[in-house]
Design goal:
The chain is mainly alpha-helical and 149 residues long. It is built from six helices and two strands; from the N terminus they run αααββααα.
Length: 149
């Protein structure tokens, strides 16, 4: 499994939004400039994030996007699921997916994929945007090292 640029850029952009727009609406153009991304691409990503209830938007001169709920309530798993779809190493372990191979019941290796997915889900569900914001702020205070989003 490889997280595409949708997941990478989307998480990066939401983290930017959490850092710079805690209380205000932020334009995608300003996020794009800070993060070196295409604002057209961000529009596509934010449409999915909005559809999944992670961001909200307003139009007008002071318009833009903001988080739809507190950053401590938004997990990396939610972001990746909104942008990438269900995370899975192989098709047979996707939750709620009806189609399974004819070896599903007797597949020994399926246990391996399930254990990996359990760990991946546990980790991505435990990391919130608030935690990432805190890590970013702490990194800015460390001795001479500048971290990026």
């Amino acid at each position: 499994m490889k997280i595409s640029t949708k997941g990478q850029y989307g998480l990066q952009a939401l983290l930017d939004l959490a850092i710079y727009g805690a209380d205000d609406y932020i334009s995608l153009k300003s996020i794009a400039e800070r993060q070196g991304m295409s604002d057209n691409y961000l529009e596509q990503l934010f449409a999915s994030l909005k559809k999944n209830g992670l961001v909200e938007s307003t139009r007008g001169a002071q318009g833009g996007y903001r988080l739809a709920k507190p950053s401590k309530e938004i997990t990396v798993k939610q972001v990746l699921n909104a942008l990438e779809g269900p995370l899975a190493l192989v098709d047979c372990i996707i939750e709620g997916k009806e189609s399974q191979c004819d070896r599903f019941e007797c597949c020994v290796t399926r246990v391996v994929w399930q254990k990996i997915m359990e760990n991946l889900n546990e980790v991505t569900d435990a990391i919130t945007l608030a935690g990432l914001v805190e890590s970013y702020k702490n990194s800015k205070r460390s001795a001479g090292i500048e971290y990026y989003i």
